[in-house]
Amino acid sequence: MLRNGFSGIRSSSCIGGRLERAWHYPCLRDTRLRGQFSFKPAKVSIPPSIRRVSGHVSPPLTWVDRLPVRARPYLYLTRIDKPIGTLLLFYPCAWSITMASYALEAPFTTPLTYISLFGVGAMVMRGAGCTINDMWDKNLDKAVARTQSRPLARGDITRQQALVFLGGQLTVGLGVLLQLNWYSILLGASSLSVVTIYPFMKRVTHWPQAVLGLAFNWGALLGWSAVAGAVNWSVCLPLYAGGICWTLVYDSIYAHQDKTDDVNVGIHSTALLFGAQTRPILSTLSASTVSLITYAGVLNAQGAPFYLGVGLGAAQLTRVIWRTDFDSRPSCWEGFVGCGWAGFWVWMGALGDYGLMLSGL
Predict the structure, then answer these.
(1) What is the pLDDT of residue 315?
(2) Residue range 96-107, pLDDT digits in tens
(3) Is-contact 143 265, C-beta < 8 A?
(4) Which of 28, 154, 183, 207 lies 20 to 30 Å from 243, alpha-carbon distance?
(5) Helix pair angle (304-323, 329-359), 10° resolution
(6) Is-annotated flag, keyword Transferase (predicted)?
(7) Domain edges within the chain
């Protein structure tokens, strides 16, 4: 409160704006006093963690924002700043490669080579899947709060530019695929149809998460064929089915982030289908995940480390489902990321088994 005959001079709400002239105060109408008061623009510093894009304040900076401006929209299109998607695609590949190497008693260079190849492939093809998804969903993304800042929805790049970029992504993915045997090349190429139709399924069915599961767990088949030359269906089918159930868990949690906007724009999801029964349904799907992966381990004659890893994965899924608040977007994101650790522990169990086999213990 100022005491020189007036009080409460208001400042502009605009960053860097000027103070409003408060001529309605008597003291400021007095020409004898005007020279005693000077008003300067307020200096407000914008924190480095906030950036202004297209007329609105965007999320905090990521490492992508330190790269050349022209490259940023394409990198954000691939979600490269959010590696959880790549990991969720990679883990089924890693399970299968490691289990096949264990079954065939392959030297360590075999899983090392294929895990490296599939790691690169997972990053590239996850990015390609995001590009396809955003090309389909450009207009829908504009109507959903969480996705309005995506490059296509915001207009940073056009569909034509995204299509050219997609061609480059698929070319790199093909280069990785061509390092495998012909059986695996044909098997890998056959997954593209599922990847392409996934964005359309959310418009026609409440089960797009199941279609995503078919695509995201293809590596459970492809990893084995890369190592062995063909798929061992007796082991890989339950492993693949367990992965699909796992995807239904984590992507249903993910879908709960947007359920209010999805209703308004006509998008379907298991989050809307399950509704208030989400927790018991996801508990059942988690139990199915653990049971099917365990069964695959039994058929592959896995040892104790594998089942320890599966047990840790089961504990992680239980923790996520118990703690997630399905009406809280931050809690759902945390639960989604937490589900990835379940896949990690399964892989660590398979890797432990393989390591013991190599050591001769």
Answers:
(1) 97
(2) 999 999 999 999
(3) yes
(4) 183
(5) 170
(6) yes
(7) 56-359
Q: How far is CA 310 from CA 104, 291, 293, in A?
A: 21, 9, 8
Q: CB count, 10 Å around CB of 344?
A: 17
Query: Rounded to two decimals, what is the model's pTM?
Result: 0.81
324, amino acid identity: T
Work out the burial of residue 310: count CB atoms within 10 Å of its CB; fewer than 13 is exposed, 13-18 middle, 19 or more buried: buried
Mean pLDDT of 289-314: 97
Amino acid found at 266: G
- Output the average pLDDT for the chain: 85
255-286 burial code (b ≥16 CB/10 A, e <16): bbbbbebbeeeebbbbbbbbeeebeebbeebb
Which residues have CB under 8 Å from 66's CB, separation 6+? none
- What is the spatial distance between Cα 287 and Cα 299, in angstroms, rounded to a whole number? 18
What the block records as the tokens of 23 is: 């001529």
SS in 3 state form for the chain?
A: CCCCCCCCCCCCCCCCCCCCCCCCCHHHHCCCCHHHCCCCCCCCCCCCCCCEECCEECCCCCHHHHCCHHHHHHHHHCCCCCCHHHHHHHHHHHHHHHHHHHHHCCCCHHHHHHHHHHHHHHHHHHHHHHHHHHHHCHHHHHCCHHHCCCHHHHCCCCHHHHHHHHHHHHHHHHHHHCCCCHHHHHHHHCCHHHHHHHHHHCCCCCCHHHHHHHHHCCHHHHHHHHHHCCCCHHHHHHHHHHHHHHHHHHHHHHHHHHHHHHHHHCCCCHHHHHHHHHHHHHHHHHHHHHHHHHHHHHHCCCCHHHHHHHHHHHHHHHHHHHHCCCCCHHHHHHHHHHHHHHHHHHHHHHHHHHHHHHHCC
- CATH superfamily assigned to domain 56-359: UbiA prenyltransferase (1.10.357.140)
Which token pair is 92? 């089924």
